[in-house]
Amino acid sequence: MSNPERMSDAEAHAAITNTILNYAEYVDGGEIELWAELFCRDAVFDEGRAITGRSAIEALLPKLLRLFTATAHNISNIRIQRTASDRANATSYVHAWHRKLDGTDFEFWGRYIDAFAFEDDEWRFSSRKVEQFGARGLEIEIDQVPRREPKVS
Prior knowledge:
Blueprint: H1 9-29, H2 32-36, E1 39-46, E2 50-52, H3 54-65, E3 68-84, E4 87-100, E5 105-119, E6 122-136
């Protein structure tokens, strides 16, 4: 990569999108070290319980993955807002399928609320919060996304 001050917004958006998509690919591939490298050294990851630091985040993934024999994370609705030359915020939606150890399926619909920082020549998550729209096949405790009240004229 290059200096973030010389990056156009389009270049930054493409690199950040790549980080978001790599997250899903690395989880589904069980590539724990590559997944952890997507996070800043002092990042916060909140999937119902916030943990801080890349090493703690890296230790979390094997615990989650051992609950499933396969996963597929599909990412959509990516929106990125660059807030400084080396900072950005993003939201994206996720539909994740999981095959549990007993052969049954678990599905999750939600969104990611992300903050990014340019660290060590890469756009990395400085924080990632998972919010749930719905789930089927497993009781999980993740922040529920509140529904907006429709405007009545």
